[in-house]
Amino acid sequence: MNKPELVIFDVDGTLLNTEFLWQKAWEETGRRHGVEGFGDQIFRKVVGISGKAVENVLEKELPERADRLEILNEARITGKKLLEKEVDVMPGTREILAYLSAMDVNMAVATTTSREMTEERLKKLALWDYFKLVLCGDEVKKRKPDPEIYLSVLKKMNCRCDQCLVIEDTGYGVQSAYSAGIPVIMVPSVNQPNEVQLRQAVMVKKNLLEVKKVVEETLENDKSYGTD
Questions:
Q1: Which of 189, 21, 14, 165 shows the shortest CA–CA distance to 92?
Q2: Are residues 62 and 141 in the same domain?
Q3: Is residue 97 helix, strand or coil?
Q4: To 10 degrees, the CA torsion angle through 147, 204, 48, 196?
């Protein structure tokens, strides 16, 4: 891959610690309702998706619980309260955004979360102005792992896939970028990569500070990305 002219970031679990706060909310809700694994095995299956897709997962995982949608709604309310108080950046977020800005590399956001919540959080943490484009889950027809959101960003930014780089934390996000033909670095949050994601991602890094180092080397040396 060529050195990126555009870096596209996922938000939840990539730039912000929201996935961990959601997991905390699911754990608390699961304990209140006596649902074993609600904040662990079950939650891990919904990381990176939203809306009806989450309800479909619960239908499969908790077929015996007629109140599963009520439990889900409670987890959502609990999570939103946590996010209002505890949302923060992931390690390396400010460093990589500041570096890319200083290097005049365009940046964009592609997130499954709604525009209202995305804009509120990015502005609250003083990140909003870094991005040339923010595209959200309620602005596309198909959500990740479908590639629509990344293909839409490419079109809106008039950029080829080989001129871009995506940073994602979930398998759904990696699949979305990979299907759009864009090189993607995975920075896992709640779930570690499986064999599929290890093949699809050009590399896996522990945090955004490690990604920043890779991008620095690429921009300064004009070398292609490779796999670890």
A1: 14
A2: no
A3: helix
A4: 70
Place of tokens 């920043």: 212
What is the rounded distance in angstroms from the CA atom of residue 208 to the CA atom of residue 72?
A: 31
Helix (H) or strand (E) holding 101: helix 93-102
Say how many residues make up the chain: 228
Question: Maximum distance among all alpha carbons in the chain?
Answer: 58
Q: What is the pTM of this model?
A: 0.91
Range of the domain at 121: 6-17+88-221
What are the pLDDT digits (tens) for 50-75? 888 999 999 999 999 999 999 999 99
* Separation in Å, CA 207 to CA 30, 36, 129, 153: 29, 30, 22, 24
Q: Do 165 and 189 sit in the same domain of this protein?
A: yes
Please report, in angstroms and rounded to a whole number, the separation of the first and last CA atoms in the chain: 14
Tell me how far CA of residue 70 lies from CA of 29, 30, 51, in angstroms. Answer: 11, 12, 14
Report how far residue 187's alpha carbon sits from residue 170's, in angstroms, rounded to the nearest whole number: 8
Q: Which residues pair with 7 in a beta bridge?
A: 107, 165
**227 in a domain, yes or no?**
no
Nearest of 52, 41, 111, 120 to residue 80 by alpha carbon: 120
What six digits make up the tokens of 117?
């919540």
Read off the pLDDT band of 220 (50, 70, 90).
Answer: confident
pLDDT (tens digit per residue) in 92-132: 999 999 999 999 999 999 999 999 999 999 999 999 999 99
Pairwise CA distance, residues 26 & 22, whole Å: 6
